[in-house]
User: Fold Citryl-CoA lyase from Streptomyces sp. SID12501.
Amino acid sequence: MSERPEYPTALGASSLDSITLLGQNLAEDVMGEVGFGELAFWLATQRRPSPGETRVFEAVLAALADHGFTPTAITTRLTYLSAPDSIQGALAAGLLGGGSRFLGVTEDCGRFLHDALSTVKDTHPADDAGWDELALATVRSARAAGQLVPGLGHHVHKQGDPRTPRLFHIATEEGLFGPHLSLFAAIGRVHPQVLGRTLPLNGAGVCGAALADLGLPLQLLRAFALLARTAGLIGQLAEEIRNPVANDIFLSVDLNNRPVPPRP
Assistant:
């Protein structure tokens, strides 16, 4: 008879009389003792964050939670209108819309900055002048390749995204203004020299930089944006239940469509 297979995990495990999570007794050491943001960080990294790391991480979650009637929010509300018996379907529909234009910028910016930093390895610039030089080279390289710089520009906050300086400030206060945030800030200073116009550093981009500086896996940066947006979508559903607008959104399209000939 073959031996029973084992599946090692440092996450949740249950026995007849206890549940452990991350090596802790769930009931005694985690419930009521560890905040959800701190726990999410801990689960992803399998190390307990410092209070400063928790503050920066939770500031990111707050920054990304809800931005009003975005496509993800509208999708969630319309899906709930179509299938009110499927809350999970409505939430999933909204989360599936997290991509390169909404939410995905967080990951895209983190990866972009990480790739740029990899060109200098461990010799990060020592002052703003050095960071500006690296930022100029980074923006010029992106433009030469016909690529956009993730985190630059915003369709609403054209004069400046209020989340960006606030997250810079929080990270500085906690001593966590690392190389990704430093390069992102430098891109904000120098990009007009290359692009010929001034664009704001958007909140999704600064969130990606902050998460990367916390040492969180680049492959999970979008997942953290989706974690934040899940709370926002729950809020959208709660408001839809109290004050429904999805049917009006549906009818505004359905009653105003205009037939046109097929276009091959």
